[in-house]
Amino acid sequence: MGVADVQHNPEHKRIQDAMFKTLAKILKRSATDCQSAALHGLNHVAHPNTVRLIESFIKDHAELSGESIDYARLCAKGQVL
After folding, report:
1. Which residues of 42-70 are buried (b: 16+ CB within 10 A; e: fewer)?
2. pLDDT tens figures, 43-72
3. pTM of the entire predicted model
């Protein structure tokens, strides 16, 4: 499902929104494995609110290492394979 699909297909938009909401809930869990998995998933969803969500996550987690912050920001841009 590419960005063009989401823009032109309401069903794809509905699925993208559901995936984003689910990953946002997982990102709020305290387990770092869950947070990492959610970040990786958000990397693939390309939702319009991904950057805002991930920047908020970084702001709320002062304990994150520089490497974790870099990874999160790469995920926000969809740059992790």
Report:
1. bbebbbeebeebbeebeeeeeebeeebee
2. 999 999 999 999 999 999 999 999 999 999
3. 0.88
